[in-house]
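User: what does the whole thing look like in 3D?
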Amino acid sequence: MVPAPILDVHPPNGPSAGEPSTGQPKSQKAMTKAERRELQEQQRAAKAAKTAANGVNGKQPGKPKDPAAPAGGGAAKQKPSRAPESQPKSATPAMARATEKAKAGQASTTADPMASTQARGLLIFSHFGLPKPVSAAKGDIHPAIARLALQFSTFKITGANARCIATLTAFKTVIQDYVTPPNHTLSRHLMTYLSPQISHLVAARPMSVTMGNAIRQLKLDISGTDFDLPEQDAKDALCRQIDTYIRERIIIADQVIQETASNKIKDGDVILTYARSSVVEGVLLEAHTSGRNFSVIIVDSRPMLEGKRLAAILSEAGIQCTYLLLPALGSVISEVSTVFVGAHSIHTNGAVYSRAGTALVAMMAKRHSVPVVVCCETYKFSETIQLDSFTKNELAPLGDLFSSFPNTKPRESLTLENAPSLEILNPLYDLTPPTFVTAVVTEVGVIPPNSISSIPVALGRLL
Amino acid sequence: MTADMARSGDFDIYATFERFLQDDQLIISKISPPLAAILSLAEAIVKSNAGTMFELVQALNDGAEELKRRSLNPISLNAGCELFIAFVTLFPHESDNFAELKKELEQQGRKYATEAISFRDKIAELALGFIKDDSVILTHSHSRVVLKALLHAHKTKRISVYVTESRPRGLGLKTYEALTAAGIPCTVVLDSAVAYVMDQVDFVLVGSEAVVESGGLINYVGSNQMAIIAKAGNKPFYALAESYKFHRLFPLSQYDLPTHNPNILSFTTPTQSAGQDGKTATTASAKGPASPGTPPSLAVAAMTQEQIAKNPGVDYTRPDLISLVFSDVGILTPEGVSQYLVGMFAG
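Assistant: Here's the predicted 3D structure for the full assembly of 810 residues, as structure tokens:
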């Protein structure tokens, strides 16, 4: 081991730090620095052991290891680096002490295996946080909102459209029950009254883009309420505006989309759809009632297995259905004429954010030159750009929420639980890049995915 | 034939349409079907006895349907009709007198058609910047706008052109004659030799029947092939299209085109085709030596009419294969086409 040259910590003497024999005072400084460094490392290791026991990810034990590596191999490094650890490690004793500390740090974590596994937690998607159980209502939460939050957290109400309509309907009740306190105006105070309600819903389950857009519109309407209107009239006006929003941008939009998209279905077609989209369900039923002769392949996946309900509804209507799980997609894709999928939201760059698995279906379809049609109302547009499924997603809670197992086997044997070396991960959404989408059917027309950004501008809508 | 078309007391739109196509003055300026359709619809406005805007639009829609039904190549025609009907619907109703409004609309229609003839010059001018001196250009079949662009470029630059034969109609030969008459070096290339020639070419220039909402192109069959080969050979593929050819159609695939019918690419049962093939073989060989000037060794077999009928006349080129669309409203990317269409029809 080459005796490492003493690297000066202070930047002003930077370039000159190369000379090894900068004299005794320098090495003394380095030594005292090393001593200070040791103290810090001791404290840090102790803290790491404490936080490891508390269940924070174990990055700390790794840190003291870093100075050992550059100090050993970085003898050639003359430049004063910003990382304070590497510099004072000139003297070998200090280096040895550092590695000892590192080992000690490791030991403290391995000595407590349960703590370490909890400490690790989720390595990916950890930025979402785990789904939390709905806490007791803080503050003045309206019973309708409390009920809705419970329905959301137990996944009794799922689907972007369903959640948005349920939210708006609940807000109508809240608004009707609201009484403006004295010395306040409805247009200013109602918003502050609604905020904790919204937070309660978000705590139950992260807000969907549809809910976000609808609430934004609601806020706009509230702040635009006329001061002079008597309270009941203002509340009625707001409820009417909510009704109009639901009717125009969801119900009627869906009807237009159903008509347009069902024209793309021809006799003898084999349509493939994934999971359960309320819009696509409408499209297929509409095409069937207008007398077209086609069959449907429903692709489904755990844990939600939403496709089962869709299969039941379609076959009841008389449409010939085939039901299969996602891994079997490869065997049927060559028979498919068109793929119809729904969306949770659609972004400015044309990327489609939808149920996890949609991206796989779209990619497979593209590979086999099958057109992919996304049915999406304009109120689902998000002004953001999303490039992958990691930056924004939602994890489903563990446990048998969805009753997705057959009743013949005991539930407990089939449900996966977190074990010491096993972490269950259930992202609910994924992102389909615009290159895999052929067309997006909206109520304002059929649009290629790359031109999505122009639609709101062209229509002058504030989405 | 005229007896079939003429209806007593009724304004026959198809006859008017044909009349415009045959009009000497307009032939010189080379009117195209969509413009003739606009002119015939404009005349239909004046001749109709509709009393309200609703009735008028109804009548125009019926007229457009009639034209589409009778025409062999309805897509570009359709684009022109839709454009004019949208224009009529969105036209501000200033005058109280409905008859005056109808006159106004007819005049606007005529004005548009005359103006539209100049669109090709605008496009030729825009394309000029992309044609470098000594370019080798590949084009497909026969397109008036491409011809105009090439002749315009020839005035100031040296170009040479490969044109495909474009079977079965052989329209590429028309282009060949026009270009050689103007002094442009031109060679006719077999449809199957496009890949062979692609490496020699600087870029590909085609006309269009319609440019659709997806940003894709509908043109004579063989354009899609050329676009795919151009992409594989890393050559730019440019489409020239006047703005009245922009259509709100959105084909999801080749088989989603309105011109597609179940007969295309269908199979016949073997016993029937064997008999037919026997017939075709004899007629072909009979044809060969019969044509004057063709030595017997070069006798070419040709498809029968039934066999040709099983083949498409137009195909759809996907937007990701097209580099740019040159039009009188500007040079657009395929995504820009959709933005333009939305702005025009929804705004």
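In plain terms: The two ends of chain B are 43 Å apart (CA to CA). The mean pLDDT of chain B is 82.
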